[in-house]
Design a protein that fits this description.
By secondary structure, this protein is of the alpha/beta class. 33% of the residues lie in helices and 25% in strands. It contains 14 helices and 24 strands. It has a four-stranded mixed sheet. It has a four-stranded mixed sheet with strand order 2-15-17-16. Helix 1 packs parallel to helix 2 and helix 11 runs parallel beside helix 12. The longest helix is centred in the middle third of the chain and has 14 residues. Bound molecules: uridine-diphosphate-N-acetylglucosamine. Uridine-diphosphate-N-acetylglucosamine binds next to helix 1, helix 5 and helix 6.
Length: 421
């Protein structure tokens, strides 16, 4: 299994290009199932989760062609309407095929995701939303079996649906399903994440009629068919945010190209509070720091508040900042897996329920640590960049799920990172 070996203590300097967003690419690739004609995407990041999604689409009969520039999907001849447990257990976002399959083909069989490292993560709201649109939903043998064959013209029916929790993939699944429903769907308490907006923009290019994405009420007027389109994936705000924290922690100066400050307001505000200097224009962000940071309190919540996907990175930063901070996780119940590993590097963290109390220490020490999930691993990489000596991070396949060319990009900024197996 691959490991990442990091020699700490280098100030990062230079420029790095931010990739397309994983969390936009995955739903948009699944939206390819809705299109009757070929669909062209650019800016798709080279990630394990993207490869898994393409493999899943391929098993259904979607023709996938891919080169360095673009991914072309042709879903004119889909033959299977199933996502098996083997697929869904490796990548929970596979649930995103449920809405498109059901809306276009009237049938879908998708495995329940089951537990995962960062909590139970149920999909009840995806299921209830589709039921509200008239679908027959049955759970048997660990699978969601969905059908619209009893409905007029076998089409989902537009509905008003209030989601009692803000769910990103839930909003995306229902938005894709509603795009081909008969009548108008109104999703209330919808997720406002930029990736939801990117998906809506892409669906509208395909012929959908969606308004309000980016607010908490999304209105979707169903259409009879969707066609292929050309779409460029929005930049990855979490990847950008991770490099921003790296620059701040190491006391460097890094410019991120293809980064949008307007998608990172909560993160930028917290980094400024910690003492970093941040400037930006419409398509780039520069972070400068002397490395002497103040601890900052963080509380995760749905966009535009502080993202849960940046929590581990800020926890790592707080471990070496001056003072005491609280990090409160309100989205996922078990998302402190990085704490024990950071403690092995000398961090002083006390966890009570969903709150971590972090007392900054003067330095972390390199150690062998274990990556447990994607963002926890990112937090460990950041800790390794400032730790004294060598940090060895095991199980980095988690990082490969979500960070394109991580060691290449870090090394480009001067870091000393290598992969070994
Ligand atoms: C997405 C992101 C993930 C991010 C998360 C929160 C993708 C592919 N992944 O995950 O990176 O960390 O948003 O910003 O975009 N919930 C339910 N029932 C449901 C659905 C969700 O109870 O039917 C709960 C979850 O357990 C969790 C909360 O709602 O506690 C938010 O989860 P959700 O927004 O759905 O996360 P994902 O869409 O899986």
């Amino acid at each position: 299994m691959d490991k990442l070996i990091i020699e700490g203590g280098v100030r990062l300097h230079g420029e790095v290009i931010v990739s397309g967003a994983k969390n936009a690419a995955l739903p948009i690739l699944c939206a390819g199932l809705l299109a009757e004609t070929p669909f062209t995407l650019t800016g798709v990041p080279e990630l394990r989760d993207v490869a898994s999604t393409l493999k899943l689409l391929d098993t259904m009969g979607v023709k996938v062609s891919k080169d360095a520039e673009q991914v072309v999907l042709d879903a004119s001849d889909v033959a299977s309407f199933e996502a098996t447990y083997d697929m869904v257990k490796t990548m929970r976002a596979s649930i995103l095929v449920l809405g498109p399959l059901l809306a276009r083909f009237g049938t879908a069989r998708v495995s329940l995701p089951g537990g995962c490292a960062i909590g139970s993560r149920p999909v009840d709201l995806h299921i209830k939303g589709l039921q509200a649109m008239g679908a027959a939903m049955h759970i048997t043998h660990g699978y969601i079996q969905a059908s619209t064959l009893h409905l007029p013209n076998r089409r989902l029916q537009g509905a008003k649906y209030y989601m009692d929790l803000v769910t990103v993939t839930g909003t995306e699944n229902l938005m894709m399903a509603a795009a081909l429903a008969q009548g108008t769907t109104v999703l209330e308490n919808a997720a406002k994440e930029p990736e939801v907006v990117d998906l809506a923009e892409c669906l509208n290019k395909m012929g959908a009629k969606i308004k309000g994405a980016g607010t908490d009420t999304i209105t979707i007027e169903g259409v009879e068919r969707l066609t292929g389109a050309q779409h460029h994936i929005v930049c990855d705000r979490i990847e950008a945010g991770t490099y921003m924290v790296a620059a701040a922690m190491t006391g460097g100066e890094v410019t991120l190209k293809n980064a949008r400050a307007d998608l990172l307001e909560a993160v930028i505000e917290k980094l400024r509070e910690a003492g970093a200097t941040i400037s930006h224009d419409s398509n780039s962000i520069t972070v400068k720091s002397d490395g002497k940071l103040k601890a900052v309190n963080v509380r995760t919540a749905p966009h535009p508040a502080f993202p849960t996907d940046m929590q581990a990175q800020f926890m790592a930063m707080n471990t070496v900042a001056e003072g005491v901070s609280t990090v409160i996780e309100t989205i996922f119940e078990n998302r402190f897996m990085h704490v024990q590993e950071l403690q092995r590097m000398g961090a002083n963290i006390d966890v009570q329920g969903n709150t971590a109390l972090v007392q900054g220490v003067s330095a972390l020490e390199g150690a062998s640590v274990m990556a447990t999930d994607l963002r926890a691993s990112a937090g460990l990489v950041l800790a390794g960049l400032v730790a004294e000596g060598e940090t060895v991070i095991d199980r980095i396949y988690h990082l490969d799920r979500g960070y394109e060319k991580l060691e290449e990009k870090l090394n480009q900024l001067g870091a000393k990172v290598r992969r070994s197996n």
